[in-house]
User: Which sequence fits this backbone?
């Protein structure tokens, strides 16, 4: 028995589960009312109260596919949506993104494959130049199309993962303190950051926000007491541009009340 | 039809031709870019020296986000190679990074031949001999090297 190829059997089973999720949930959904969350938590007092609290601050949400890439995908969608309406921030982001390739190559990432991801990433970024977009509605539709096309959507996720990994490497002495278990930064990057479908933790969020110089607010909704959801800004003290809902193991996009 | 996976495989192939790493080669099969044949030459100063080991690499449309399935076609006696030719190597499983290309895959397998990991055995006999009876291990490896000339 021992010499059977168990790795391939496990991989095959994982792929079947993933296929079922793919068929059920789009990569990024249309806008849903926050109230639609109630359907998932019938008769569940704790969550129902927290959804009420969430509604005092947010009106809509977009669900993302729970494939382990949800943080990166949700972040990219929400941030590009913000940038598409904010010329000043868009311009500085675009030049930061443009220059990031050289920086990652200097950190030792393989140039040949990095270029492939960077080219696609920049192609997507350029689509959402506020100067090129006349209507909010057009932009949102274009974002939905782009992010539901697996090729583009996944390449954007990969590039964000590489930026995150690069930041961890660049400031390894700092991030080493946040790593649980016996991982070195090197092992953590290769095992938990760069591979697709690996879930994100605080450390991924902190490193990505720092690499892109942006603040993300995450609203935590779990079984904890108090009936209120808890917000956490990464990093603290800056104005958040991206709003995400966290439920254990998963991130979705939130839209604040205007 | 051009898809991200196919475009990337064309690039991988171009790079492998223009900048071939020592001791490995690979190319898509005649009518399907998703299935490649490859050869790894046994690294010098190892019992695999002089062997020419054939492999197949099968990609899916999810490449490079997911690793391909790589398998030895030639018989290989090695702690991390299964009887069916499947390879137990972390970068082909849970440590796969989309930044790896065909060239990186083949050179990683080549290094695995030189440096087996007997703690995660796919072939328990090979792993045990590697740890406890290196002479017998090398004898068995050399037998598969000779076999590789005939294949």
Assistant:
């Amino acid at each position: 028995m021992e010499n059977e190829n168990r790795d391939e059997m496990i991989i095959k089973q994982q792929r079947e589960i993933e296929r079922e999720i793919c068929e059920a949930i789009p990569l990024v959904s249309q806008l849903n009312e926050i109230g639609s969350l109630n359907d998932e938590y019938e008769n569940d007092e704790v969550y129902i109260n927290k959804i009420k609290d969430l509604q005092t601050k947010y009106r809509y949400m977009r669900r993302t596919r729970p494939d382990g890439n949800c943080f990166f995908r949700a972040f990219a969608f929400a941030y590009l949506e913000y940038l598409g309406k904010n010329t000043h921030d868009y311009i500085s982001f675009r030049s930061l993104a443009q220059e990031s390739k050289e920086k990652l190559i200097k950190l030792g990432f393989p140039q040949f494959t990095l270029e492939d991801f960077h080219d696609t990433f920049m192609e997507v970024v350029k689509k959402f130049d506020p100067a090129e977009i006349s209507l909010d509605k057009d932009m949102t539709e274009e974002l939905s199309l782009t992010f539901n096309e697996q090729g583009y959507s996944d390449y954007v996720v990969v590039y964000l993962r590489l930026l995150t990994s690069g930041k961890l490497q660049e400031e390894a002495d700092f991030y080493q303190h946040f790593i649980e278990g016996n991982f070195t930064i090197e092992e953590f990057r290769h095992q938990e950051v760069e591979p697709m479908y690996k879930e994100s933790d605080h450390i991924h969020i902190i490193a990505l926000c720092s690499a892109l110089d942006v603040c993300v607010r995450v609203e935590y909704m779990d079984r904890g007491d108090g009936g209120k959801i808890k917000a956490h800004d990464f990093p603290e003290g800056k104005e958040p541009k991206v709003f995400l809902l966290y439920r254990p193991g998963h991130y979705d996009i939130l839209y604040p009340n205007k | 039809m051009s898809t991200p996976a196919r475009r990337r495989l064309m690039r991988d192939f171009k790079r492998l031709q223009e900048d071939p790493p020592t001791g490995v080669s690979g190319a898509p099969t005649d009518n399907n870019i998703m299935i490649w044949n490859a050869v790894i030459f046994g690294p010098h100063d190892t019992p695999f020296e002089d062997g020419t080991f054939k492999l197949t690499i099968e990609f899916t449309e999810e490449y490079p986000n997911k690793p391909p399935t790589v398998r030895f076609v030639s018989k290989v006696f090695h702690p991390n190679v299964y009887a069916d030719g499947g390879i137990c190597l972390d970068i082909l499983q849970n440590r796969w990074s989309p930044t790896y290309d065909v060239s990186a895959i083949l050179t990683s397998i080549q290094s695995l031949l030189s440096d087996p990991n007997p703690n995660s055995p796919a072939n328990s006999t090979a792993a045990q001999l590697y740890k406890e009876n290196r002479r017998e291990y090398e004898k068995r490896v050399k037998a598969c090297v000779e076999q590789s000339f005939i294949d």
User: Anything to note?
Assistant: The CA atoms of residues 6 and 33 of chain B lie 7 Å apart.
